[in-house]
């Protein structure tokens, strides 16, 4: 499945070491003003090689739009784009073409398709998320015009955490630097908040808003957990401690607290939508590991290639993109729910 969304849809294509990544965005309402500069800015934020603590792969990530936009406005037709791959080094992966890397999708892709692109993980590579950032950047411009803001930040790396984007990030970066020196990797957490989402957005029962968001987040490579509001902490608390009391206010009905993270019954309450996304440690580490090859023989593996010591470091922009696309899709679906 390579298509995200129901009404607002993004279909992506391309492999990590192929000629290009790309996508088709469909369902964007006609006549919407689009800033191509803002789309490129979003890609620039995600681009590898921006820090000594991320992948050294040097991709320019210049997006080229092929259709669907004319004179700065959407036409209502499919928006096609490509992002050329300029710095692929497939030779790094040649020694591993018959080896299943631990905690990678090498074995599972082989099990499903009977073959795989071993160059940099092929379709399973996080390189694919560049396309999602383009789709999210388009969706964000619609949301901004509607007064909806989506922001995310790194809230945890290893044992170090912070409560907001304004808190110092240096303790978190120190964790990344430590594992890099030790030829290891570390997990992390991204916190995302969506404000300005009106009450009533979401398809109850089988299409709940938090189910849509959770599906979007867990489709990001490396994600192993998502929680909303107080999340798993609610399982150890009492109802008297966690109910969100409704009150009237000049801006409309709201809740005094937001333990549920802005969603009730699968529908937005009008309060901020708060979620946290957990990323596993990067499975490729510069240490010798034992595994098997595609014939089932035990072999040792010393990984090569250019990898992030912490996936969460560059995942912030992907989380925002997936949240933006999901919210726009939910808003478009909501329009069909009443006269």
Tell me the radius of gyration. Answer: 21 Å
End-to-end distance, in Å?
Answer: 33 Å
Mean pLDDT: 92
| Major beta-sheet overview | 5 strands, antiparallel
**Helical proportion?**
25-40%
Query: How are strands sequenced across the largest beta sheet?
Result: 1-2-3-7-4
Oligomeric description of these chains: single chain
Classify the secondary structure makeup into a structural class: alpha+beta
- Report the principal-axis shape: globular
Q: Helix count?
A: 7
**Count of strand segments:** 18
The percentage of residues in β strands lies in: 15-25%
Could you characterize the architecture of this molecule?
The protein has helices spanning 36-46, 106-113, 129-145, 170-181, 209-218, 239-242, 312-334; strands at residues 3-4, 9-13, 20-26, 64-65, 69-70, 73-74, 79-84, 149-157, 160-161, 188-195, 223-228, 246-247, 254-255, 263-264, 267-268, 273-279, 289-292, 298-301. It is of the alpha+beta class. The strands form six sheets. It has a five-stranded antiparallel β-sheet, with helices on one face. A five-stranded antiparallel β-sheet has the order 9-8-10-16-11. Strands 5-6 form a two-stranded antiparallel sheet. A hairpin with a 5-residue loop joins strand 17 and strand 18. The longest helix is centred in the last third of the chain and has 23 residues, at 312-334. The radius of gyration is 21 Å and the shape is globular. The chain starts with a strand and ends in a 5-residue tail after the last helix. The mean pLDDT is 92.
């Amino acid at each position: 499945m390579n298509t995200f969304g129901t009404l607002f849809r993004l279909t992506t294509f391309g492999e990590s070491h192929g000629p290009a990544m790309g996508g088709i965005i469909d369902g964007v309402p006609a006549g919407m003003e689009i800033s191509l500069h803002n789309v490129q800015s979003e890609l620039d934020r995600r681009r590898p090689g921006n820090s000594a603590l991320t992948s050294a792969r040097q991709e320019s990530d210049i997006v080229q739009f092929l259709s669907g936009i004319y004179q700065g406005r959407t036409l209502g037709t499919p928006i096609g784009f490509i992002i050329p791959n300029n710095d692929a080094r497939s030779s790094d992966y040649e020694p591993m073409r018959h080896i299943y890397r631990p905690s990678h999708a090498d074995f599972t892709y082989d099990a499903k398709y009977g073959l795989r692109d071993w160059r940099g993980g092929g379709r399973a590579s996080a390189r694919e998320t560049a396309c999602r950032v383009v789709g999210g950047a388009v969706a964000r411009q619609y949301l901004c015009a509607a007064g909806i803001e989506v922001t995310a930040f790194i809230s945890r790396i290893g044992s170090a955490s912070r409560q907001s984007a304004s808190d110092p990030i240096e303790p978190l970066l120190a964790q990344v630097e430590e594992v890099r020196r030790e030829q290891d990797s570390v997990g992390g957490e991204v916190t995302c908040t969506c404000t300005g989402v009106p009450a009533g957005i979401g398809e109850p029962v089988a299409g709940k808003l938090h189910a849509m968001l959770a599906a979007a987040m867990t489709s990001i490579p490396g994600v192993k957990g998502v929680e909303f509001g107080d999340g798993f902490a609610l399982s150890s608390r009492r109802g008297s401690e966690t109910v969100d009391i409704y009150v009237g206010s000049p801006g409309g009905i709201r809740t005094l607290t937001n333990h549920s993270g802005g969603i009730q019954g699968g529908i937005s309450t009008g309060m901020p939508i708060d979620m946290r996304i957990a990323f596993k440690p990067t499975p490729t580490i510069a240490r010798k590991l034992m595994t098997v090859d595609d014939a089932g023989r035990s072999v040792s593996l010393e990984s090569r290639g250019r990898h992030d010591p912490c996936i969460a470091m560059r995942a912030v922009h992907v989380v925002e993109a997936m949240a933006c696309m999901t919210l726009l899709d939910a808003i478009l679906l909501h329009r069909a729910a009443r006269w």
